[in-house]
Write a structure and sequence with these properties.
The structure holds two protein chains of two kinds. Chain A is mainly alpha-helical. Chain A has one domain: Up-down Bundle (Sodium/glucose cotransporter). In chain A, α3 runs antiparallel to α14 and α9 crosses α21. Chain A is globular, with a radius of gyration of 23 Å. By secondary structure, chain B is mainly α. Chain B is about 55% helix and about 0% strand. Chain B is built from one helix and no strands. Classes of the chains: A mainly alpha, B mainly alpha.
Chain lengths: ~525, ~40
């Protein structure tokens, strides 16, 4: 057995151990299973949020962008750097508070509670599931490629092993298990990335010497405009690159659920600072390693393997094992969060909401696991026979997620006039516009990224839809009172918690009955 | 600087600096949030 493989096995076993420990420690009721009993502090909140946002894309897609487009790829990194602090500062405190007042335990259920209409969940759940499937597919492919390189087995077999480990691991437990393992994995990711970056810089003779050597291969790679200067003046594309991983995070249901699981609303403050520190250490690494791979490995057949190949070339054998564990950590911490959220959406937001309203906890877990297995089987079938590029799938699925949900989550806590019609219009316009723009080939002919079009459309949908229907679909008073309380800095009065205020409880009951 | 064109250097240093300043401003603005913890049940 190679030392790299031994490290990976130890890593998998350690993560499984943490998962089992967290599962035993956690509460078994719905809030305990899905939100860790709203018990997480700033360290776990920040690193869980970041590691579930930083996926296999960082080791495959980012490395490939650096290798093929040079410093142009840094536009994505520069937006990404602020994604965590933006998310926590804009949504964190208010979303934590409002979700508790409304009694929401999933991020899609929260949207329906804030914008009371069953159509919210009927639209949001399938859109989120669709995007998450493609996003998790990218993680499967990245995991398969990583194992293929380490073990030397064929890609279909490596893919089957990677998917098997990810699915087993997701079955271990609920949010607490995912949060604690993601926390540890974030630390492994930073250590692995910093190690490989330092080793690469030593190998190329330092940052300046490395840049000069890249400039001798193609000076365009040192500009912010791409290998053939094709992005020069393409501000629509650049704005999209900056937005997709900065404000885009605020629309990812598997990421914003972190806010709802915080111990206290004020946790968002410290977590924001931690997340920026993590990002500054971690994010530039894969882009730079991909760039300098041009000097060390100029004839790579598949640029997506640049970071793996550089690790293999510049690190001692035992360190390659640790870096491989870091790569798997990035993949698995995103994949488990996505699968847990996908299972939750299928069981809580679709099955329990529309099919069986008296679902037991055991049925919930069963539906959730069947969903995970189904996604894994379909994912394997697509990835084994015709694997698409990881970067393309990640950017596409996250663009649609961001376009569909950013205005709905942001306006939920910041705009009292945002109503159900506005939210529905926003989700439909954002999803439709970003998918249509991408599929029609307009990004290349117009130079405008689908993210820019998607976000503009969904913001327009929210504003126009809400303002035009204020009289026919007013925001219920119980929601406006909850928003007033959310805006205040102070503990939630006990009477505001659902079921404890006779007025609020009565209004909530009427709303629930009318929605059927 | 660093063997890079000036614009690249300005962008890759300037944008992270903006995020650091944003974080500092956020920490300053939110310095009163601890008040919320007093009496909180969670």
């Amino acid at each position: 057995m190679s030392i790299e493989l031994a490290f990976l096995i130890i890593y998998f076993a350690a993560m499984a151990g943490i998962g089992v420990w967290a599962m035993k420690k956690g509460r078994s009721d719905s809030e305990g299973f899905l939100l860790a009993g709203r018990s997480l502090g700033p360290g776990v909140t920040a690193l869980r949020l970041q590691s579930s946002s930083m996926s296999g894309y960082m080791f495959m897609g980012a490395g490939s962008l650096g290798y093929t487009q040079g410093y142009f790829g840094m536009w994505y990194a520069l937006g990404d750097l602020g994604g965590g602090i933006l998310n926590l500062s804009v949504l964190g405190r208010r979303m934590r508070k409002l979700s508790q007042i409304l009694g929401s335990i999933t991020s899609i259920e929260y949207l329906e509670h804030r914008y009371p209409s069953k159509w919210i969940r009927l639209i949001a759940a399938p859109v989120a599931l669709f995007c998450m499937f493609f996003y998790v597919l990218a993680q499967f492919i990245a995991g398969g490629r990583g194992l293929e390189m380490v073990t030397g087995v064929s890609f279909p077999l490596a893919l089957a092993i990677a998917i098997g480990v990810i699915v087993l691991y997701t079955f271990l437990g609920g949010y607490l298990a995912v949060a604690y393992t993601d926390f540890v994995q974030a630390i492994i990711m930073v250590v692995g990335m910093v190690w490989i970056l330092v080793a690469t810089l030593v190998e190329v003779g330092g940052f300046t010497a490395g840049n000069q050597a890249v400039g001798e291969i193609n000076p365009n790679l040192l500009t912010m405009w791409g290998a053939d200067l094709g992005f020069h003046g393409q501000w629509g594309v650049i704005l999209g690159a900056l937005l997709v991983f900065s404000i885009g995070y605020m629309g990812w249901p598997h990421v914003v659920v972190s806010h709802m699981a915080m111990k206290r609303p004020s946790v968002a403050r410290t977590a924001g600072a931690y997340s920026l520190a993590f990002n500054l250490l971690f994010i530039p690494g894969p882009y730079l390693v991909g760039l300098f791979a041009l000097i060390l490995l100029p004839n790579l057949a598949n640029p997506e393997t640049a970071v793996f190949a550089v690790a293999d070339a510049v690190l001692p054998t035992f360190a390659v094992g640790i870096v491989m564990a870091a790569i798997m950590a990035a993949i698995m911490s995103t994949a488990d969060a996505l699968l847990l959220q996908a299972g939750t959406i299928a069981s809580q937001d679709i099955y329990a909401r529309f099919i069986n309203r008296k679902m037991t906890d055991a049925q919930m877990v069963k539906v959730s696991r069947i969903t995970v297995l189904l996604l894994a089987a379909i994912g394997y079938a697509i990835a084994a026979f015709d694997p698409p590029a990881v970067a393309e799938i990640v950017i596409f699925s996250t663009t649609v997620l961001g376009s569909a949900f950013v205005p709905s989550y942001v306006c939920a806590v910041w705009w009292k006039k945002a109503n159900a019609v506005g939210a529905i219009s926003s989700m439909l316009a954002g999803t439709g516009a970003s998918v249509a723009w991408q599929l029609s080939g307009l990004p290349s002919s117009t130079g405008i990224d689908p993210m820019v079009v998607g976000i503009l459309s969904s913001v327009l949908g929210m504003v126009v839809g809400s303002l035009l229907t204020q009289r026919s679909h007013p925001v219920p008073e119980r929601i406006t009172r909850a928003l007033d309380e959310t805006a205040k800095v102070g503990p939630i009065p006990a009477k505001m918690l659902l079921g404890q205020d006779a007025f609020l409880a009565a209004q909530a009951e009427v709303a629930a009955r009318s929605e059927g | 600087m660093f063997g890079l064109p000036t614009f690249t250097t300005v962008v890759i240093i300037g944008v992270p600096m903006l995020w650091v300043i944003y974080t500092g401003a956020f920490l300053w603005v939110s310095r009163g949030w601890k008040r919320e913890d007093a009496g909180a049940k969670k």
